[in-house]
Amino acid sequence: MKTLVTGGAGFIGSHLCDLLLHDHEVICVDNLLTGSSSNIEHIDSDDFTYIRHDVTEPLYIDQDIDFIFHLASPASPIDYLELPIQTLKVGALGTHNMLGLAKKKNARFLLASTSEVYGDPLVNPQPETYWGNVNPIGPRGVYDEAKRYAEAITMAYHRYHGMDTKIARIFNTYGPRMRVSDGRVVPAFISQALSGRPLTVFGDGSQTRSFCYVSDLIDGLVKLAFSGYNEPVNIGNPDEISILGFAEKVLAITGSNSPIVYKPLPVDDPKVRRPDISLAGRVLGWEPKIDLETGLKETIGWFGKFAQTGISDGTRA
Ligand code: NAD
Ligand code: UDP
Ligand code: UDP
Q1: Whose CA is nearest to atom 21 of ligand 1?
Q2: pLDDT (tens digit, 9 = 90+) per residue, 100-157?
Q3: Residue 60: CB within 6 Å of ligand 2?
Q4: CATH fold of the domain at 2-172+213-235
Q5: If you measure from the C-alpha of residue 10 to the centroid of ligand 2, how many angstroms do you get, rounded to a whole number?
């Protein structure tokens, strides 16, 4: 099979390329806006091709393509707050172009959507049937609405053109290859703890998240991709923890003496987030296997080895 992965030089995309290369030819398309060639430089395979391209521009490819995984998009809040127009364009124009390419190639298509389509949710955990609580004009709206549009156009190509499309609603995912300075809570707290700097808890730390280790997420994405299910599916780990509790866990595992400092809560920061994964269990037979402690130890080990140079203080480095 020949598979095209947009955003393939990013955190999740590069792990997906690694897995797919076991039995696929992979074309990775990325403009390195928030990703890095260092995420794919270890790949030494004749079955791998990298194309540097901005998917908001049309992409014409001579070869046959069987599957498109569309992951290209800034994903960290500080990235999409700094790149609002690019974020809207890649969700809208980028998704349209990749659907057009998939239609022309008669390829199947998977959209990497997000739990942010639920906004600051009023129900917890969030099932796929929940329509969300999104502020369209707030600072996070550039990401949330781009992904909501991306879901809408994906369903339109499925219904109108009869294409075989999938939508994965990805919840907070972490692991090796996250950018130290991307501002997300996992790399921020780990790099702060490892360097003895204060952990920057936003708000009072009572807001919750549910963290999924990257290998579990990739397993879910691939199961969804090759399933017969065409409506959105939550992929995430339902083990919910407060951000303050998460800071304490990172301190305990690293053995760090870093203090905790409190900074203002970003605008529209969701107060709770936890996936209802009963649909993924029913239609994919999928559930996560890696608990937070195990996944964090792996991630901390990687950060300790490879990523100690760029230190995050909770803002863009
Ligand atoms: P990332 O920033 O590491 O990866 C995104 C990749 O997309 C980067 O390599 C970037 O250079 C590329 N990209 C951005 N705009 C592009 C464009 N116009 N053309 C080509 N390439 C472009 O982020 P990630 O965490 O790996 O996220 C991957 C996908 O998963 C994103 O679509 C994101 O919205 C989604 N997602 C991630 C999470 C998470 O917790 N990591 C949660 C929900 C959804
Ligand atoms: N497209 C692309 N590569 C292709 C085919 C299409 O990038 O091989 C883009 C092109 O920009 C087009 C979009 O995908 O506008 C949607 O294509 P489609 O044929 O679905 O619809 P159109 O909007 O062109 O009628
Ligand atoms: N957060 C924090 N300190 C940081 C970075 C993030 O307290 O240095 C909080 C943030 O306010 C949010 C949670 O951690 O409540 C998760 O943030 P992240 O940016 O990782 O992703 P989000 O889930 O908001 O998309």
Answers
A1: 30
A2: 999 999 999 999 999 999 999 999 999 999 999 999 999 999 999 999 999 999 999 9
A3: yes
A4: Rossmann fold (3.40.50)
A5: 24
**Using CA atoms, how far apart are residues 243 and 237, in angstroms rounded to an integer?**
15
Amino acid at 310: G
Q: What is the CATH number of domain 175-210+239-271+290-305?
A: 3.90.25.10
Query: Cα separation of 170 and 11, whole Å?
Result: 13
Interatomic CA distance for residues 89 and 287, integer angstroms: 33
Q: Which residue ranges make up each domain of the chain?
A: 2-172+213-235, 175-210+239-271+290-305
Q: Which residues are catalytic?
A: 143
CA dist 94 → 21, 44, 90, 163, 164 (Å): 24, 28, 4, 17, 18
Mutation test of ligand 1: which of 6, 11, 209 has the most ligand atoms closer than 8 Å to its C-beta? Answer: 11
pLDDT at 307: 67
Enter the pTM of the model. Answer: 0.97
Nearest atom within ligand 1 for CA of residue 74: 2
Q: 203 and 269 in contact (C-beta within 8 Å)?
A: yes
- Taking Cα atoms as reference points, which of 226, 6, 222 lies closest to residue 98? 6
CA distance 317 to 43: 28
* CA–CA separation, 187 and 202 (whole Å): 15
210 touches ligand 1 (CB under 6 Å): no
